[in-house]
Amino acid sequence: GSRPLALEVGCGTGPICCFLAENGFEAEGIDISPTAIAIAQEQAKERRLSIKYRVADVCHDELAKQRYDLIVDGHCLHCLVTEADRCNALRNIRAAIQPDGHFWLDTMIADSGTNFGKDTLLDDDGILWVKISESGRFDLEKEVNGVTYVANRRVYHDSGCLESELRKAGFVITWSNSVMPEMEGPNATYQAICKVVD
Fold first, then answer.
1. What is the pLDDT of residues 10-65, one digit of tens each?
2. Which of 180, 198, 185, 171 is nearest to 77 (CA)?
3. HSE-CB for 100 with a 13 A CA cutoff
């Protein structure tokens, strides 16, 4: 019989794709980094797994020639900072899922104790800004007290923001969970399994 088809967006070097391939899925992975994809291909070959990897941008590329039974977010969404990029990404993911398929999301959120390090600022919109040495190289930069920062991640304080984004994109959240860190400092994680609204 044919195996269910899974796609991981932001697959990095491919550990989740390998897990899916080892557990009965026909797995594909995309990432914006050619370096990550090259390493993922090596790893799959070493483990004798047949996984299709390609370099793609979840915000701007069409994801599906055929529709997927499962799409997994491998820590991709929190790397997308702007509303427009996030909206596009979720729309593209939604369009690539079978009517009875699922979207499995695991993404960073912040709690009151989250600390991303001394060279960072987390603003009220959930944008994490990281200090850089020279300005003018990135689209999303800002200056605070003479220091230049670049927008690095989108990490909401409230999972409700994520849930309304998902709903707006046409998903129904069938299960969700927020995993809080054991101690002060690390970020929290929001996990959800979503179905597609017809």
1. 999 999 999 999 999 999 999 999 999 999 999 999 999 999 999 999 999 989 87
2. 171
3. 1
Distances (CA, A) of 51 to 48, 64, 79, 140: 9, 15, 24, 34
Between CA 16 and CA 27 the distance in angstroms is 9
* C-alpha to C-alpha distance for 6 and 11, rounded to whole angstroms: 12
The pTM (predicted TM-score) of the whole model is 0.92
Q: Match 């309304």 to its residue by tokens.
A: 164
User: Which residue has 């999303």 as its token pair?
Assistant: 140
**DSSP letter for each residue of 124-169:** TTSEEEEE-SSSSSSSSEEEETTEEEEEEEE--S-HHHHHHHHHHT
Which two structure tokens, joined as six digits, stand for 63?
A: 């994801």
What tokens appear for 45 in the block? Answer: 């070959």
Q: What angle do CA 46, 51, 56 make, to 5 degrees?
A: 120
Q: How far, CA to CA in Å, does 82 sit from each of 46, 65, 160, 178? A: 37, 26, 17, 23
What DSSP line would sit under 4-38, residue for residue?
Answer: PEEEEET-TT-HHHHHHHHTT-EEEEEES-HHHHH
Q: What is the 8-class DSSP label of residue 2?
A: P
